[in-house]
Specification:
- The complex is a heterotrimer.
- The two termini of chain B are about 15 Å apart.
- Chain B has one domain: Hypothetical Protein Ychn, Chain: A (3-Layer(aba) Sandwich).
- Chain B is globular.
- Chain B contains four helices and five strands; from the N terminus they run βαβαβαβαβ.
- Chain C has a single domain, classed as DsrEFH-like (Hypothetical Protein Ychn, Chain: A, 3-Layer(aba) Sandwich), CATH 3.40.1260.
- Chain C is built from four helices and seven strands; from the N terminus they run E-H-E-H-E-H-E-E-E-H-E.
- The chains are: A alpha/beta, B alpha/beta, C alpha/beta.
């Protein structure tokens, strides 16, 4: 079955990103397809490569990046939410006159239409948030 | 429909509101802080026990364990599942709604 | 074939960003020509109240945007009666949301439909995709 996932909260403060990750991993192991994971609200903070948790803690961002690489998953950060919260890729940084970008590997920035599209194209859309 | 609830019913009204809006044959899955709603003997247990006459209740085992809630404290009839079971529920029900 | 999308709003505005960013999804989603409905229940009904003035907070008052929903063909706006009553509100406290019905000589009609919790439960059950913010 084709699943898409909406993550509405940032990492560490809320459990949402952990639950979404555990759900995604289980779905993949069962042979389901993850069509897209869309990050909205503070969820876009899941996609900054500057995240540096203590060594004995999980690295939530790297975990997403690794999953994307292994399973070719489409990780999308909402552009409007990302701009508000200071998450940028090279294009966004240039367009907005910023001196750096910080998007993590495997993520891309795109519009909210990608969330609606995920709802249309997937058999199930499940939300993890606060 | 599969409903997920991630708030403690002793703190927020998500579970209560969810229960008000479920139709017979639906399922409610308690995740994250929502697992406190699966405990026996709380002020909110009667609300859950009453709702269980119409809908099936599930709770995420790893979330119970993390919070030190022994399975013996879970209301009889609530199914304790893992993330594989979560995926199966999402597949089984035609859509999901998250009560955030 | 279009899908039935329901946006569920249960949170008050301004204290958190969910109401505003939910509205942004609805506006973008309107371009996809799906069957769109909005539900306002619990503290979500506060999103639609009249008289919001945010200038002293220094944040944008986005409540006028709800009035534009009709122009986006978003005209099924369900407000839960029990949630309104629990908060001492009536329909008169809410923004007048209307749309022009193209099947009825563009007559202006109310977009807000007052429904009971039980009716809302059935509406939720009848959807293909439910997005909660």
């Amino acid at each position: 079955m084709k699943f898409s996932i909406l993550v509405s909260e940032g990492p560490y403060t809320h459990e949402a990103a952990d639950t979404a990750y555990n759900f995604t991993k289980a779905a993949l192991e069962k042979g389901h397809e993850i069509f897209r994971i869309f990050f909205y609200h503070d969820g876009v903070n899941n996609g900054t490569r500057l995240t540096t948790p203590p060594q004995d803690d999980r690295n939530i961002v790297n975990r997403w990046s690794a999953l994307a690489q292994e399973h070719d998953i489409d990780l999308v950060l909402c552009v409007a939410a990302a701009q508000r919260r200071g998450i940028a890729d090279a294009d966004e940084a240039r367009r907005n006159g910023k001196d750096a970008d910080n998007i993590a590997p495997g993520f891309r920035i795109s519009g909210l239409g990608q969330l609606i599209d995920a709802g249309i194209e997937s058999d199930r859309l499940i939300t993890f948030g606060d | 429909m599969l409903h997920t609830v991630n708030k403690s019913p002793l703190d927020r009204n998500a579970l209560e509101s969810c229960i008000k809006h479920v139709v017979q044959g639906s399922a409610v899955l308690l995740i994250e802080d929502g697992v406190y709603g699966a405990m026996q003997g709380t002020q909110k247990s009667p609300m859950v026990e009453s709702a269980m006459k119409e809908v099936s209740f599930y709770v995420i085992g790893p979330d119970l364990k993390a919070r030190g809630i022994d399975e013996s404290r879970v209301i009889d009839g609530i199914d304790i599942i893992d993330y594989n079971g979560f995926v199966d529920l999402v597949e089984e029900y035609d859509k999901t709604q998250s009560w955030l | 074939m279009s899908k039935r999308f329901l946006y569920v709003n249960r949170k008050a505005p301004y204290g958190t960003i969910y109401a505003l960013e939910s509205l942004e999804v609805v506006l973008i989603g309107a371009a996809f020509e799906q069957d769109v409905s909005l539900a306002f229940l619990d503290d979500g009904v506060f999103q639609l109240t009249r008289g919001q003035q945010t200038d002293e907070l220094g944040v944008k008052n986005f409540s006028p945007t709800y009035k534009a929903l009709g122009d986006y063909d978003v005209n099924k706006i369900y407000v839960e009666r029990e949630s309104l009553e629990a908060r001492g509100l009536t329909l008169d406290d809410l923004l007048p949301l209307t749309y022009e019905d193209e099947d009825d000589d563009w007559a202006e009609k109310d977009s807000i439909k007052l429904v009971s919790a039980a009716e809302l439960a059935e509406i939720m059950e009848a959807q293909d995709v439910v997005l909660s913010f």
